[in-house]
Amino acid sequence: MGRRYAVLDVFTNKSLAGNPLAVVLDAEGLSDERMQAIAKEFNLSETVFVFPPENPGHTANIRIFTPALELPFAGHPTVGTAILMAMERFGDISGEQDAVVVLKEQIGAVRCAVVLRENAAAFSEFDVPKLPEPAGPTRDKELIAAALSLDPVDIGFENHAPSRYQVGAPFNFIPVRDLGALARAKPDLTIWHDAFGNDTHTDAYVYCRETRAHESAFHARMFAPAMGITEDPATGSAAAAFAGAVHFFDDLPSGTHHIRIEQGFEMGRPSLIDLEIDIENGAMHAIRIGGQATLVARGELFV
């Protein structure tokens, strides 16, 4: 008997853009080793495995694997899986259909709002289950620049400097001066661990204020060689942690801040991630990540 799966392109409103995601809908009975092998077989940045919910108030329990390891939380798997679960519930629709999907991930229960649209990309926004927190110091600017094949003068803009924040997995946030520097960035794996640490989370999220689109606030690239991802087209969990860096360096005032992030353009997989940050009395109160997704394929796994 086959196990149903689907492939979606996430953080985009059209196919063959954004970040592709595989979702295995019938994951019961799969061992950890088997799920890791299936994720490696798909060879996408993440593969989601869906299990029946333990809590009757939840939609599903999910587990998320990169080609190399399991993650406690990730953004584009959350957006894509929430949309797919709503599609499974409602089927073909006319007009629009709102839905609430609750996914239990290792980080906790993640509440997602979904809007299905007839003949158009669906949209989902989720409440980030934890606020970003600092994840320790970064290495010196010269070493970071060398690991990205850049010059030290390329690192930083305004008062933004390298930092580390986490929501689940930690990320190194590396500001660069402009789109030109960002386009030149290329991982030097011979010194990558010297610049970004020796654990499995040596991800470098490289960003600048200059953007391709007027409505975007930041342009970003994300390199995660230790997770088996040379470059990621769109990284929602990094965008969630990035809220910590934005709040710290930009000193956001009270209110709700809508921040659009471009990613994946250098890979030919343009992606748009919507980050919302609620600030109250100088402190972060809540964070939300949103984006569109399209269904690309359905099939069966015979494993």
From TrEMBL:
InterPro entries: Phenazine_PhzF-like. One of its GO terms (cellular component) is cytoplasm. The active site is at E46. It comes from the Bacteria. Pfam families: PhzC-PhzF (PF02567). One of its GO terms (molecular function) is isomerase activity. PANTHER family: ANTISENSE-ENHANCING SEQUENCE 1, PHENAZINE BIOSYNTHESIS PROTEIN. Belongs to the PhzF family. NCBIfam families: PhzF_family. This is PhzF family phenazine biosynthesis protein. The lineage of its organism: Bacteria, Pseudomonadati, Pseudomonadota, Alphaproteobacteria, Hyphomicrobiales.
